[in-house]
Design brief:
This protein has 206 residues and is an alpha+beta fold. It has one domain: Alpha-D-Glucose-1,6-Bisphosphate, Chain A, domain 4 (2-Layer Sandwich). 37% of the residues lie in helices and 28% in strands. Strands 1-2-8-7-6-5-4-3 form an 8-stranded antiparallel β-sheet. Belongs to the AHA1 family. InterPro entries: ASHA1/2-like_C, START-like_dom_sf. Pfam families: AHSA1 (PF08327).
Length: 206
């Protein structure tokens, strides 16, 4: 698998005003049932994304280790999973929806993240603040489905391959931002800030 080329396999859309809607859509060469299991089975989810705990049923709650948690709103195997996505003490409205459908010999995966975003934060980082993280997650899913070796999240951004992936992802979300009407100067600054956040330059030893 060409990890950096994985960026071009996904389609990104951005819509909304007060509530931003980010859409990430791509094909996986795996059956719908396999992709569904990877996204909803707690043991498999921990292998490519994050360990999850909670009352994992509709109306129950979940918590991803060191990350978001929330309520499970809908679960319609093997097509639809919808959850609230709460991170921090007062994050405001945030929901994530995953839809799966048959697509030729594989699966069409669509992730839709709808959230209220602080305008100052948005102007500084744009959709890439969350989008790069989702691209990294979908890379992990792709490696898991294909039997590949997971990337080391702690050091991935320090490798040439990791920096290339993060930079390409940040730029791709910048293109989606621009296509949705984002001012060019704001988009460029957001891409630079997001890239620097996910893949900071290492300080030279003195």
């Amino acid at each position: 698998m060409d990890i950096v080329d994985e960026i071009t396999r996904a389609h990104r859309e951005l819509a909304g005003d007060k509530r931003k809607v980010m859409v990430l859509r791509r094909h996986y060469d795996a059956e719908v049932a396999d992709v569904w299991g990877a996204c909803t089975d707690a043991e498999r989810l921990g292998r490519w994304f994050l360990p999850v705990t909670g009352d994992l049923r509709v109306g129950g709650t979940y918590q991803l280790e060191g990350n978001a948690g929330g309520e499970i709103l809908q679960c319609e195997p093997p097509e639809l999973l919808k959850v609230t996505w709460q991170y921090g003490e007062d994050p405001g409205f945030s929901e994530v929806e995953v839809r799966l459908s048959a697509d030729g010999d594989g699966t069409l995966f669509e992730l839709r993240h709808t959230a209220e975003v602080d305008p100052e934060f948005w102007s500084q980082y744009g959709p890439g603040a969350v989008g790069v993280g989702w691209d990294l997650a979908l890379l992990g899913l792709g490696l898991h489905l294909s039997g590949g070796t997971p990337v080391d999240e702690a050091t991935f951004h320090q490798t040439d391959e990791g920096r290339g992936f993060i930079t390409a992802s940040s730029r791709a979300w910048g293109e989606a931002h621009h296509a949705a009407g984002g001012p060019p100067d704001e988009v460029a600054a957001a891409v630079a800030n997001t890239t620097a956040f996910y893949a900071p330059e290492e300080e030279s030893p003195r």
